[in-house]
Design a protein that fits this description.
With 214 residues, this protein is an alpha/beta fold. The chain has one domain: Aldolase class I (TIM Barrel). It has 8 helices and 8 strands; from the N terminus they run E-H-E-H-E-H-E-H-E-E-H-E-H-E-H-H. Helix 5 links the parallel strand 6 and strand 7. It starts with a strand and ends with a helix. Bound molecules: D-xylitol-5-phosphate (DX5) and zinc ion (ZN). Zinc ion (ZN) binds next to strand 2. D-xylitol-5-phosphate binds next to strand 2, strand 8 and helix 7.
């Protein structure tokens, strides 16, 4: 089954509780955390995760676009994150392993993320210790960008790695996913689709979430 993780980056931050209630037919709530260093934008952080935690039953899928996430992963887990993903480009391999171990020690699911220019093979050192791999289909930092179809061979390659080495691992894509581009993501092996603008700009959000399942 294809899962949908709407990104609240496209929600109205003055009405976050209302906008999270609007996506209750989805599978996860995608929370984009940006520090202004790893990406050229600043979004939301630990207090917001804590505030939204009691407003929904859905798991919080927290995408950390921050330098050296090992410094903060435990605080995100304590704030209520259920899945925490860290970019492989955001620290040394050793420190990414340490971040994943800290997330697991908190009883939460851990994942790694790759930016568009990062090859599929960059996930291999982490493949056996993650519950999710996230492939960016835009440069991280902003919602509403154009889908990069040239990331599809990477999605297919990582799907092969997962099937061979860690078949329960989820494969998520993020950026520019809409009712058209969702199809090629699913065809290449993604099973979790993040969508920000495609969900929040829809007139009928539950219908759009159903449409994105392919
Ligand atoms: C980009 C974020 C995405 C973004 C997706 O850095 O990681 O989650 O919100 O937004 P759309 O679906 O509008 O491309
Ligand atoms: Zn994201």
């Amino acid at each position: 089954m294809i899962k949908i993780s709407p990104s609240i980056l496209s929600a109205d931050f003055a009405n976050l509780g209302r906008d999270i209630a609007r996506i209750e037919s989805a599978d996860y709530v995608h929370v984009d955390v940006m520090d202004g260093l790893f990406v050229p934008n600043i979004s939301i952080g630990i207090p917001v995760v804590k505030s939204i935690r009691p407003t929904t039953q859905l798991p919080l899928d927290v995408h950390l676009m921050i330098e050296k996430p090992v410094r903060y992963v435990e605080q995100f887990c304590d704030a209520g994150a259920d899945i925490v993903t860290c970019h492989v480009e955001s620290d040394t391999e050793e420190n990414i392993h340490a971040a994943l171990a800290k997330i697991h020690a908190k009883g939460k699911k851990a994942g790694v993320v790759v930016k568009p220019k990062t090859p599929a093979s960059a996930v291999l050192p982490f493949l056996n210790e993650v519950e999710m791999i996230l492939v960016m289909t835009v440069e991280p930092g902003f919602g509403g960008q154009k889908f990069m179809a040239d990331m599809m061979p990477k999605v297919a390659q990582i799907r092969q790695y997962i099937d061979a080495m860690n078949p329960t691992c989820e494969l998520e894509v993020d950026g520019g996913v809409d009712p058209v581009t969702c199809k090629v993501c699913i065809a290449n092996g993604a099973n979790v689709l993040v969508a920000g603008s495609a969900v929040y700009k829809a007139e009928n959000i539950p219908a759009r979430i159903a449409e994105l399942r392919g």
